[in-house]
Amino acid sequence: MSAESYIVPLQEAYLKPRTKRANYAIRALYKFISKHTRKTGKDVIISNELNNFIWKDSIKKPARKVAVSLKIDNGKVYVFLKDSKELNEFLKKSSEVKEEKKKKVSEKKDENTEKKAEPSEKPKVAEAKPAKEEKTNKVKKE
Question: What's the predicted TM-score (pTM) here?
Fold first, then answer.
């Protein structure tokens, strides 16, 4: 399982006021990822490691470029620093989850084949009830 890699330019943050550059760099990252994956900003999740990388030199001097890896899972886009610990952990977890799902599916198939292999008993048939006799309304003669 590999993830897509991009180098995201964050130069446009340096056109903004000095005291807001890191904020604009994060916005530029969201914008870039949304454009390349066609997902909304709500579906983009940035890792803590990447956020810290952008903010490490303070709000005035964010990184100008960032190498990132993307992983799309269940309609969400997870963004990590390229070759980071968090990315490796995420990939391990997702592969473990997929293996567990495969095991569950194979167990269900095994159970179904065992049930089919056993000879089934004849279904019980309900005995037919005799038809009800129609009641006639007898009028009392006085």
Answer: 0.67
